[in-house]
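Posting here for the record, re: pyroglutamic acid.
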Amino acid sequence: MNPRLAFLRTAALTACLGTALPAGAQTPVEINFATAYSVDNFHTKNLQQYADEVRRATADKVAMRVHAAGSLIKPGEIFAGVREGKAEAGEVIMSSLANESPLFGIDALPFIVSGYADARHMWNASRPAIDKALAARGLQLLYAVPWPPQNLYSQPAINAVGNLKGLRMRAYNPATVRIAELVHARPVSIQVVDLAKAIADGQLELMITSSSTGVETKAWTRLGHYYKVNAWIPKNIVFINKTTFGKLDAASRTILLDLARNAEERGWKLSENSDREYEAQLAANKINVSTMDFFMRQYLDRIGEKLAREWLKQAGNDEWKVLLQYTTERSQQTPAVR
Ligand code: PCA
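Prediction output follows.
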């Protein structure tokens, strides 16, 4: 065939094939989600439901797969991994990224959020800045869901400041490392996937985490005390690589964001409703559930203030604006009357 004819034939074929798919239609895309948390954790169940809903709503054009318990990317490497494209999407606890930017550590500042209503105000105030901070790192925020309030688990009873000295305290973010240092405990970084074993093996005597994680890791095997200090309400953020997101067609992108809004609503309710049930399970397993002694509580408040001062020194305009907006909105709300 002469070269000109061959060219025309190819052009015609391409044109035919081009019309075989409706304009804007997209070939199926696989999106792998890397998370550090177990299949049974409420965050992961919520993520799985999101993945199923997206698959259904896009008629299988966006096939999401959830890889739990650090099975796709190691827990500490998920954020970097998704940025580098090792997985298309991921979920991490936001405050673990506080060294990346103080903004990400805002929800682990101790004692400035007293419950879920405050936590919602904080999220409303911080969401646009977090969205921007993630976008600047090549990520699109999908949604955020809190863990239940963070409380103190301990092997010995804690009745005096000196009781904390020298204890091995499990840390999961820069704030918990710093708290351990300030109370003269010894920080040990342990990911939640390794925590049940670490507790059972006696690798720690102290930790701050939720009722949910305490139940999941059977904290009662060694840690007999649970003090309701209500220190902060940290959130997990769920995000997708921006390049991957940008390759989806407009309809799919809208579906992902719309269903993310539902997942966020659902997750907040799940978190809040589960806390009471998890605390009951701690008590049923003979953990001594109590509040802190008044003087100990004051000591912890001072530690919290020190952390806040250190944070404010690192913080810039974005962080200050968010904190100011949060405290302003919180002040406008009448506290719940007991
Ligand atoms: N559980 C996770 C993060 C916060 C929480 O409640 C953990 O302990 O690592």
